[in-house]
Amino acid sequence: MSGVIDLRSDTVTRPTPAMRRAMAAAEVGDDQYGEDPSVTALEEQVAGLFGREAAVFTPTGIMATQMLLRSLVAPGSEVVCEAGAHVVAYEAGAAAINAQVQFRTVEGTRGLLESDAVRAALRPVGFPNTEVGAISAEETTNRGGGAVHGLARLTALRAVADERGLPLHGDGARLWNALAATGEDPAAVGGTFTAFSVCLSKGLGAPVGSLAVGDGDVIAEARRWRRRFGGAMRQAGVLAAAGSHALEHHRARLLDDHANARVIATRLAEAHPGLLDPAEVTTNIVYVPTGQRPAAEVIDELGGQGVRVGAMGPHLLRLVTHLDVTADQCRSAADLLAAALGSASRSG
Ligand SMILES: Cc1ncc(COP(=O)(O)O)c(C=O)c1O
Questions:
Q1: Within a 10 A sphere around the Cβ of 234, how many other Cβ atoms?
Q2: Cα of 198 to ligand 1 centre, how many Å?
Q3: Based on CB atoms within 10 Å of each CB, which residue in 94, 126, 173, 224 is the most buried?
């Protein structure tokens, strides 16, 4: 671990020595021939954990999402999702090109989709209306500060989807964080989605990898799309082994990340009452407004003190906790940020 406290994202983690050992020891084969035992084991492990028929290993979360949308939704149809969803805001327009869908966005609170708002956004069937192809929910919400839909909301969304015979797609990049926070049964939560992705390279700390999960026929089709997108790999077992290791050793500790995020939020709120509500920090993401001071200036100041945070707007920072930052480092980072914001209010 370097001296820098890097809170820009939970994707910045480096494989632990034990994870590297697991990677080095992995049995491998050509996965496109179905001969990589480590990939197959990971796919079966994840499908089984969610009580679903199948899973397919992918290099990235974006690819898993694109493969699923391409498999579930007819080209030219509309996917209803939250306005700040990663799939619409941060994938470089991939869905227009790869999945060939358009979006209808719904404003939610902290990125959470409300079933009534979604129902109201579904265009009626029939000429000349654009066909609705799917509903997509992100768990947890990245842009929404790591908020959790949870089983009850997802069940309500699934009911709306069922009313119209639509698939419910899940972007589960941080679904592990949601499950850790709520303690809900993975099979129950995973069962609400027609198909969904999960990432290994975020809070779980693997260097690479996501999976698309669902019924056998959907995942078989997604697998064909992985090949078409150029994402089918060969001796990928070295990567899958990192994922299996992460699932075994890094899931329970996600609660430490959540506690650290809450500590950051609490210290900032103590130093600057009203700046943010620590009670809203339920997983590993903290959004911090910078008031009058440009976020870029605060980032530069903290950077000079060995703390890295991200900008999510001209006056908005994002801090994400993960397994490469300790509780002490989070406390130090929060204190330095509180001081930087203090000078912001003095100068502003
Ligand atoms: C909510 C969400 N979905 C999808 C992704 C994409 O994951 P990847 O970078 O593995 O493609 C991210 C990345 O941070 C994310 O936060």
A1: 14
A2: 9
A3: 173
* Best residue among 11, 62, 284 to mutate for probing ligand 1, ranked by most atoms within 8 Å of CB: 62
* Phi, psi dihedral angles at 132 (to 5 degrees): -90, 130
Ligand 1 centroid to Cα of residue 172, in Å, is 9
Under DSSP, is residue 239 helix (H, G, I), strand (E, B) or coil? helix
| Tens digit of each residue's pLDDT (9 = 90 or more) over 245-264 | 999 999 999 999 999 999 99
* Spacing, Cα 210 to ligand 1 middle (Å): 9
**pLDDT-derived band at 343, boundaries 50, 70, 90:** low
Secondary structure class of 57 (helix, strand, coil): strand
DSSP letter, residue 141? B
Average pLDDT, stretch 81-86? Answer: 98
H/E element, 213: strand 210-214
- Within this chain, do residues 125 and 262 fall inside the same structural domain, yes or no? no
What is the domain-level CATH number for residue 54? 3.40.640.10
The last residue of a domain, from among 233, 249, 265:
249
- The whole-angstrom distance between residue 138's C-alpha and the CA centroid of its chain comes to 7
With tokens 């999976």, the residue in question is: 211
Q: How confident is the model over 164-205, as pLDDT tens digits?
A: 999 999 999 999 999 999 999 999 999 999 999 999 999 999
Over residues 105-164, the pLDDT tens digits come to 999 999 999 999 999 999 999 999 999 999 999 999 999 999 999 999 999 999 999 999
Q: 235 and 257: one domain?
A: no
177 Cα to the center of ligand 1, angstroms? 14
For residue 210, give the ligand 1 atom closest to its CA: 10
Q: What is the pLDDT of residue 147?
A: 98
Q: Does residue 4 lie within any of the structural domains?
A: no
Q: How far is the CA of 128 from the centre of ligand 1 (A)?
A: 34
Q: What is the mean pLDDT of the segment spanning 22-30?
A: 98
- Domain count across the chain: 2
Averaged over 335-342, what is the pLDDT?
96
Closest CA to 136 of 100, 199, 174, 87: 87
> Using only C-alpha atoms, what is the Rg of the chain?
20
